[in-house]
Amino acid sequence: MCMNGQCKKMLNGHLVVQNNQDVSLNFGSSEVNGKNAKEADPGSNGFKITIKKSPILIAYDLSYISTLYHDFQEDIKLFSFTQVEGDPTRFCNHELRSCQKVRDEYLYGTPNLPPGQKNWTQETPIPPGSQGSCCWCPELYVTINTDAPFSRATLHCSWIQQRMWWNVYLSKSCPVWIPPWWTAFRIGGWNWQYSLEVELSWFSPTESSINKLSSTELENMENECKEENKDSTIDCSRIRHKESGIQTSVHTLNSSSPSFYDPNFGASVQVISSGPPFGSANAKDLNGYYMLQPTFSPKGMPPSFAIPPLRSGCGKASKNQTEEEINDCLKPTLIIPPENADFTGVSCDKIGTSVHTWSSVNGRFCYHPPGTCQRAQIAHFYKKVIEDHSLGKISQYSVRAQNSGSPQLILNSVGEIGHEELDQNDMGNITNIQSRRFFLGYNFDSIFDTEIMFSVEASSVSWVATSSPGIITFIEPPPLEACTAMSSFGCPLKVYVKNSGDIDSGFVVQIPYCTKSGVQTSEVDPVMAQTKKIKANSIGIFTFVLGVSVLTGSEYKCVVVLYNSFSVQLDQNMFTFSTTSTTISIASSDSIISDVVANQTSLTNKKFDSMFTGNKCISCGLNFWCLIANIKDCIMLGVKCIGIILGLVIGFVILLKLIKIIFELRKNKKIEARTINNSQESLSQGINRKN
């Protein structure tokens, strides 16, 4: 790429990423300073770009409209008519005092029926003026008690009439309904979200670079690594010095930030296209539609009208929810087209208007015969959804019929699309509903690909051809007898590290983990990492003590990792040891690399006493079955103990004999001394007498 006479060598890429897809691209050079790149750098040259894409989420904004009733019935024929025993004349009278008397006797009344008719029917409309005037208050309003099941709304008289001598509950008819348990939302504008995590990794050595290996050594290392990791995704060409000077830069692309430029690496990544094509079956434009969401189920509700309540975390996977429960969560939700709903209070044959019209100044209910407004009830549409579901069909009014993605009900109190769990009490509180934001979301896992383009300046890539200042040159096997018996002092191990740099440097050697049969094990006691300063062009020795906590002979493979003082990994190695009497094998420092588990260490200052001694019987303690299983060792141990005890007894007896002999000798010497003295005295006395 050239601009204003200046040219740059660029590394460009163009790719399409699907939802929930990870893409990783490695860029490198075949030669570094005239040498094979693998000989100059074991896998860390060049750079790597990784792109991880999350599913696309389409979210429709929801605006709270009203709390609606699932169903209600006109009580003209179902209640009031039966209360007056089919005789309207007993109720209606032009005198309010008579109305009061009838009210006390029959509670409620019914309007005048056509002559000869005892009940209202859909075929017989209410004639004009048939509501009557004897007991009809001039002004009406509604008092709704939704706390009790099947609450009955009552038409009250005006404020003045309530405080006069007539009864405040006089009415011609009282519609009855199931308490409100649906929340109506208007579906507004939509937005869609996606997330791309872009990670750039390149080699930028700090204090040192990685060890220079010959092509033969590198081939052996990679071949053995690949052989050991046939079924894994380990990049054996990079694993040796994965942490040695690798720098990482992570960026996130989304609908609000579709591009970025990394000045440190001279890399730019941008999203060319990503988004749902509205108007198709995959993503329908629902602007202007209404969403009816059930909020709670009142006590005493007939089973035929039962609707699952809104669960917390609706549409969101939870440990306590099965997949079937998550799918059922939004099953009762209704999506109603604009032509089937009206909240202006004008229309009677649409959802959301019947109650408003009934409580208007008209004083009449829908201007329709009883029962005709049932077609405008939520129950009317919901019954269709249930019927379609029982037939194995997706109803046109269901949530799943609108888009091909997985539906979610999303609640967020700060105005951002989120996944906050929705509490059932929140939905029952109108004030709380109005103060929060709701979204109807659709999650798309397998469609809507994203087209991405990236560009990287080739000059920004560091091609490495230097040697590491530190390398593990040798691991010294401990003496065979030291690990065969596995005494309480453990098994000594020495690691030789060479500082090939020009200055004195500090190094850290760690044994992060061991494996048994290819799986990490805790049977090998934790080993503390050691730090040592090594002079330039010299070799330092790190000594460790290994201990295991099992009784039977086992074979273990352990990893040794070398770091510099900046915690940059310089080298790693693997060695094998066994608690049996077989020879301990130590992997050569330049031929074997194990599967490194990143960021996993088990370091502790605690010292563990080994359970292994020269005899397994001692390790059994008071375990009866262990003693039985090792009866031979226990017998041998018993024989040894008896021999030791007999030896001690015999030695003690001999000691007593020696002490007795010594005392007798000393006693005899004293007697001889006395005899000599007496003889001398007698001789002296005889001489004196002669004189």
TrEMBL record:
It comes from the Eukaryota. This is Male gamete fusion factor family protein. It comes from Cryptosporidium meleagridis. Signal peptide: none annotated. Residues 5-631 form the Generative cell specific-1/HAP2 domain. It is found in: Cell membrane. InterPro entries: HAP2/GCS1 (IPR040326), HAP2/GCS1_dom (IPR018928). GO terms for biological process: single fertilization. It is a single-pass type I membrane protein. The chain crosses the membrane at residues 635-659. Belongs to the HAP2/GCS1 family. Its main location: membrane. One of its GO terms (molecular function) is lipid binding. Keywords: Cell membrane, Disulfide bond, Fertilization, Lipid-binding, Membrane, Signal, Transmembrane, Transmembrane helix. GO terms for cellular component: plasma membrane.
